[in-house]
Amino acid sequence: MTVFNRRSVVMGAAALAGSLGLRRAYAQAPSGPFKLDPLPYPANKNEPHIDAQTMEIHHGRHHAAYVNNLNGVAQQHPQIGQKPLHEILADLNAVPEAVRTAVRNNGGGHANHAMFWQIMGGSGGEPTGELKAAIDRDLGGFAKFQEDFNAAGGRVFGSGWVFVTVTREGKLALVTKPNQDTPLMDGQRVLMGNDVWEHAYYLKYQNRRADYLKAWWNVVNWDKVAERYAAAKAGTLTI
Ligand code: MN3
After folding, report:
1. Contact 159, 179 (CB under 8 A)
2. Distance from the CA of 8 to the center of ligand 1, in angstroms?
3. What distance in angstroms lies between residue 195's CA and the mean position of ligand 1's atoms?
């Protein structure tokens, strides 16, 4: 078999796996050190604000693809799997240049989505305690924080994220990033963030990103965000 023919067969197999749907694609995913954890709640938990189909596709296909792609890179460059993900992302210059962009996009995507699922599945409301005090101190209070966060998310051109970063001292700041970039790449820690890629909202909201940003607050799990805040101050928050 010539190289050309072998490649045709491989590509044909990949196309077939895609046409057979998600389960078959999982079965053929490259194994490796990076894992896609199941959603920590049923896919319909964020209804009606985020529909179950969006959650299923977003987690089971988009996030799964980042994990699979990252494992594919790790098969060729085993050292990629030997450091914690937040350390890899904080030092992308140490990643071989040939796969640096792949690690940036897929590693960032894996970290961002792992955080994202964790802080949703709640019922909104408002933060309390130390976290509320930090929002009042650093972000101008809860109402102003929501307004600024939504505005920042709306200003992201194309695909990206809006984040709240947190220091070891517990200080908060609003940050936006394009694509699957993350403040982890600047050595920072992420308290919470919202995905403003169209895949996060298009089925239900189409082009109305502002409506999605506004509705998203109804599914934030503030207990989980508070756990992340405490972990940041304890120095144990990773992704
Ligand atoms: Mn996404």
Report:
1. yes
2. 31
3. 6
User: Contact 197/156 with Cβ under 8 angstroms?
Assistant: no
Cα distance between residue 211 and residue 150, in whole Å:
10
The alpha carbon of 5 and the centre of ligand 1 are apart by a number of angstroms equal to 35
Query: How does pLDDT run across 80-107, given as a tens digit for each residue?
Result: 999 999 999 999 999 999 999 999 999 9
Q: Is the pLDDT of residue 22 over 90?
A: no
Q: According to the CATH classification, is domain 129-234 in 3.55.40.20? A: yes
Nearest to 107 by CA among 89, 87, 129: 89
Alpha carbon of 163 to ligand 1 centroid (Å): 13
Report every protein residue that has its C-beta within 5 angstroms of ion ligand 1.
Answer: 195, 197
